[in-house]
Amino acid sequence: AWKAGREELRKEVEATGIPFEPKPRRPKFIEDDELVELGGKPRVMEELHSVKLMHAMSEEPADDDDDDDDDDEGGGEEDGDDRGVMKMVAIDEYQLMPGERGLCIEHVSLVDEETKVAEKFIVVGTGFVTHDGEDVSGRGRVLIFRLSRINTAQGTKILKLHLVSEKSCRSGVMALAQMRAPQSVAESSSGGFLLAAAGRILEMFSWRSDTLHRNAFYDAQICTVNINVVKDYILVADVYKSIQFVRWRPDLYSLTMLGRDIDPLEVFSSELMVNGKSLLMVVADAHQNLRVYQY
User: Fold this and answer.
1) End-to-end distance of the chain based on CA atoms, in angstroms?
2) From CA 61, how far away is CA 79, in angstroms rounded?
3) Tens-digit pLDDT profile for residues 60-98
């Protein structure tokens, strides 16, 4: 029927004296040479994110003589709060890689295994979101920043972010925490090790010569969304598999599971709460519930 209708249409068009030129059924693909005439290929937009060091500065409100006169004539009430408005100003910025986004940030004190000296750092966990989708496995990084004071030309000192070390991970880093170091390492120091949750893996890193070294790992469930720490005890919250209770043994460099919730649960957030001599686990799930667990 389609061919018959096409032939009838061709005869009608040719009877008018106009040549019959049917449109192709397939669209015409533009070649690279033709794109040059059109102005070139369209650019693929890539999102760029960064880590910013913010500083709170006081902003004095502008004086308005007219308002003051009106208040004096009308006997207006005095405002008891004379403080200026605080605004956040970026004093330094570190540009992340294309497609890389910051997922978590933590202020930790890491002790060097060689010098036994603790130092404070800003640790950022990142993850990559690219246009390749599920064809490429996810990855992330752990970035270690040191805050340095630099003298300016005006004679003042400002803080700067200095990238000390970075560690690549096979998944996005969703959570970070500081853990207690072995007594042989931190004899007279308050510093510790770094615990990072990358996908389903918990990794324990030690700090030596400005470099992270993995000493232990724990294979959790599907994807860890949050970790909470009290002393050597860790609460691991999973996106679909509820929570696990893990213990860190620094002298043995081992992470051991003490217990877990066997029922599936979509956890959004979690926290450890000390109630007297009891340690409670508080969980907020996807069903708008607040659950309390106890080991």
Assistant:
1) 75
2) 13
3) 655 555 555 555 555 545 555 556 678 888 889 999 998
